[in-house]
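Reopening: structure tokens for the iron/sulfur cluster complex, inputs below.
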Amino acid sequence: MDELIKETLSILRMAWAKHGDGLVYPCSFGGESSVLLDLIHQAELPIPVLTLDTGRLPQATYDFIDEVRAFYGLNVQVVFPDCREVEKMVREHGVNLFRQSPEMRRLCCEIRKVHPLKRVLAGRSAWITGRRREQSPDRKSIQAEEHDAVYGLTKYNPLLNWTWDQVRAYISQRKIPYNRLIDQHYVSIGCECCTRPITVGEDPRAGRWWWESEEAAAECGLHMDPLRGYVGGEGLEGEGI
Ligand code: SF4
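Re-run output (same inputs, fresh job):
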């Protein structure tokens, strides 16, 4: 664990040294977020932390955001989707359009997550993610520092070598705020309506968009080029958030 912590701190410090105010951490407030927020705090790095409020998050995630604000005295910037885009989408396709097809689900993710993320990344040069190699086959090849072909900036993955058990052990040892859904076997936490707990032996990403085929449900769109699909491997390539 000590070596992992050293590696993560080293990546965070390198990212800050290279990018300074150009660096941002769009935090998902899932399990990995506890580790990253705590290590950013320990390293005394003034990296801006923001989160995307899709309007469909679980109450436990909102509770976690407020706990983090109080625990670290951190000003978390909460970013919302464009209400006109959401209204148009819901008017045309219904409130639960994501159940209709993978295309409708991607449209919902695009409007509620990708567009706001693009807005907050505009003018930045780098961002931090909570992605880990263990999370999925597509993430096995992620690197500490990558060129993000989707957003045209540098992406840092400081937790790339952490396992889920190590994330949980760190939270428990440090007694830091965390998303209480973890206690109910949620591993990948997103919108309330698109997230479920997993059972023993299931893939960590099986709790997201479980009604879709494995391939369709692989990513949320934050780490994808909507026109070309998943951009992975080769040092290229959103925990996503
Ligand atoms: S996770 Fe579900 S509710 Fe959230 S933005 Fe994507 S499709 Fe919409």
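The mean pLDDT is 87. DSSP finds six helices and eight strands in the chain. Marking as resolved unless the reporter disagrees.
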